[in-house]
Amino acid sequence: SDKPDLSDKPLTDKMAQVAASRTFMALPTARASATLKSSRALVGRKVSGVAPSRVVLGRKSLKVNALAVGDKIPEGISLSYFDSDGEMASLDIAEACAGKKVVLFAVPGAFTPTCSYNHLPGFVEKADEIKAKGVEMIGCVAVNDAFVMDAWGKSVQTDDKVVMLADGSAILTKALGVELDLTDKGLGIRSRRYSMLIDDGVVKELNLEEGGAFTISGAQDILDALS
Amino acid sequence: MLAAVRNRSRDVGMVMRASLGGMARGYADVPQGHKDATLTGAAQNISNMRRRDITLRQDLKLAAARSWDEGVSSGFAADSLASLMHGKKIVLFGVPGAFTGVCSQSHVPGYVKLAAEFKKKGVDDIVCVSVNDPFTMKAWAEKMGVDSSVSFYADVDGSWTRSLGMEKDLSVALLGQRSQRYAMYVDNGIIIKMMVEESPAELKVTDAESMLTAMATVV
Fold first, then answer.
1. Considering the entire predicted model, what is its pTM?
2. Calpha distance B78→B137 (Å, rounded)
3. Which of A28, B36, B52, B153 has the fewest other C-beta atoms within 10 Å?
4. 3-state secondary structure of A51
5. Torsion from C-alpha of B200, B80, A169, A55, nearest 10 degrees
């Protein structure tokens, strides 16, 4: 039987566009490969606002290319956190970014050294300076649950300057295409380290590390970008 | 009336039912208790006292709670069940999540307090397992100030929890795929006693006192 001719570029683009124009729902499949594993969190989820150019539609899988400057934050994704009263709350990330400046940074894991000793404390120290430049919210995202994020924030003493957002099922991480496979270190699917400045839902500055390295995603880099 | 049934049908089941005096008992009737059970297949096997040595599952690994540096130096190695259970009597209890309320405030402290009692009964180790990563488990143990009386192990991918049939979707609590609350007494890899809470938020049959009572009934 003839294989379908997939070299027709407009058709492929259109497939991707149709798939990702409004909402996309990836198909579940039994095959376990890296691409499919990374996209399984998005199965059955209605996530809209992911640019068609970033979505790679395979025959049975759907992978999102990594975030870039100028992309919009996807809608329909909510992260949980513990507010200052100690109650569990939910934050729709696109709504939280609408009409204001937000700084988001992600760490591979709570209670891991670089995250605890350098990345998060750096943002806590510089939080007031960053907010003085017109940033309304500073959020720390990790693929952990809200309880762990809350406990981690308390252990690092954030004083509520940084909102500890829990992306427990890696929905936001996979929708942004920044997942990192750390299963061999006993961590599972996590997020790459990044920091970004979002203005009215559009990514204006992005410092995305390759993996868990801590080179360009510190607080000072965001401050320099703001001024 | 019985004669009419026999004449009308050659069906063996019908004839048997007729000979039993009308009692509707089929060939393989499921006991009512099993019909009402909400436990999964794996949990029912355990509850039916099919005592198998669970250390035979060499694919299941639990990662000991450790700091990152310890992880690096150990090459992020996980422990097999045999290293935990072989030749020992242990009490293993599972919690839905580290840093969550009931687990931190009542469940773990209960076992820490009665650790000496367990030692007297011949228990070599008390192990707490949760579906978290090992670094979080270590931070949680440190926060609760637990000494070496209770060891913390991380079921990183949930495979151990699924093998027991104890997986529970706690997405409503925004926790994802986690574990039910359970406690078991394991002797040389064989689960002797296992108790599971009806709801993960409760702590009625899996606390330390209930485990001691249950162990007392073991011959």
1. 0.75
2. 14
3. B36
4. coil
5. -160
Looking at chain A, which residue has its C-alpha nearest residue B100? A147
Report the distance separating Cα B158 and Cα B218, nearest Å. Answer: 29
- Residue with the bigger pLDDT between A24 and A124: it is A124
Q: Collapse the DSSP code of A1 into the 3-class scheme (helix H, G, I; strand E, B; otherwise coil) and give the result.
A: coil
A117 has a chain B CB within 8 A of its CB: no
Neighbouring CB atoms inside 10 A of A66's CB total 14
CB contact under 8 A, A186 and B100: no
Q: How many residues does chain B have?
A: 219
* ipTM confidence score: 0.72
Catalytic residue among A20, A50, A103, A115: A115
Spatial CB neighbours of B187, under 8 Å, sequence gap ≥ 6: B89
Tokens of A171: 């929905």
Tell me if residue B128 is catalytic.
no
CA angle (A180 as vertex; A174, A182 as ends), nearest 5: 135
In B26-164, DSSP assigns E strands to 61-64, 79-80, 89-95, 125-130, 151-154
If one counts every other C-beta atom within 10 angstroms of the C-beta of residue A131, the result is: 15
CA distance A172 to A93: 9
pLDDT in tens, chain B (219 residues): 555 445 554 555 555 555 554 455 555 666 666 666 666 666 666 666 556 788 888 889 999 999 988 888 888 899 999 999 999 999 999 999 999 887 778 999 999 999 999 999 999 999 999 999 999 999 999 999 998 999 999 999 999 999 888 999 988 888 889 999 999 999 999 888 889 998 999 999 999 999 999 999 886
Residues 6+ apart with CB under 8 A from B52: B190
- Could you tell me which residue, A48 or A209, shows the higher pLDDT? A209
Tally the residues of chain A: 227
Q: What is the secondary structure of B131-162 as a DSSP string? A: SS-HHHHHHHHHHHT--TTSEEEE-TTSHHHH
- Min Cα distance B141 → chain A (Å) is 12
Could you count the other beta carbons within 10 Å of the beta carbon of residue A109? Answer: 27
Interchain CB contact of B157 with A (< 8 Å): yes
Residue A16 has a CB neighbour count (10 Å cut-off) of 19
**What crossing angle do the helices spanning A146-156 and B134-144 adopt, rounded to 10°?**
60
Query: Is residue A199 helix, strand or coil?
Result: strand
